Amino acid sequence: MLIAGASSGIGHTLALQLQKEGATLFTAGRRQPEGIQSTHLVWDALRTGENDLSGLPDTLHGLVYAPGSIRLAPFGKLTVEQFREDFELNVLGAVALLKAAMPALIQSRSAGVVLFSTVAAKMGFGLHASVSVAKSAVEGLAKSLAAELAPYRIRVNAVAPSLTDTPLARNAGLLDDNRRAAADKRHPLGRVGTPEDIAGMTAFLLSEEAGWITGQVIGVDGGMSNLK
Ligand SMILES: NC(=O)c1ccc[n+]([C@@H]2O[C@H](COP(=O)([O-])OP(=O)(O)OC[C@H]3O[C@@H](n4cnc5c(N)ncnc54)[C@H](OP(=O)(O)O)[C@@H]3O)[C@@H](O)[C@H]2O)c1
Q: Against a cut of 0.85, is the pTM above it?
């Protein structure tokens, strides 16, 4: 199993869960994940041409791509360069890693791939233009690859979280004391997500129990995307 972005947030929680279940883990990212026994490949999604992925194994039963961004700003203040950077981190990083891992995934004859979108791809939210553009592309990538790779028994799905309590959301100031109660209340189920909420769905999608699920975008969002 290869997890990109296992040093923090959802990817880290997933790596801990899979480790407990006895999975052999490979991780990719700028930092070595703490508390995870894995073969770690130093890898920067924004420098796709410069990374050495020769340490990937011959066979991979799964790949999860967790690097992502929450850059919220009025459209007028977002620069084209910022759109480009969000696209590179969320989309092109995944493309590069998937291309490198493809022979090993095909070798497995039964692999699962999970990418991360956001509730803000399906729903229109102000200030979300850049992340929405990038994550909508992630959904397109997931569905297109699911079709192309089905003959190899590779399943590709995307998980679309709403606001989840991770370093990414905290560093963006979205869970500050003065915003937390409102953030909880916005969700029909009365709270923002936990990394465990999202990692649990991801682990399920990777497992054989999800062996007939592919090409789906699954909202794990406290009811945010479908309920009023
Ligand atoms: N948290 C939310 O509210 C929320 C909501 C909707 C969607 N999502 C999506 O869910 C996914 C996981 O988010 P999270 O909240 O768990 O984020 P996080 O806590 O910031 O973790 C992101 C991980 O990605 C890695 N990463 C970041 N930039 C990288 C780069 N340039 N190259 C390689 N690795 C990089 C980081 O590792 P290193 O720093 O070690 O490289 C880190 O392990 C993301 O795709 C995010 O967009 C999150």
A: yes
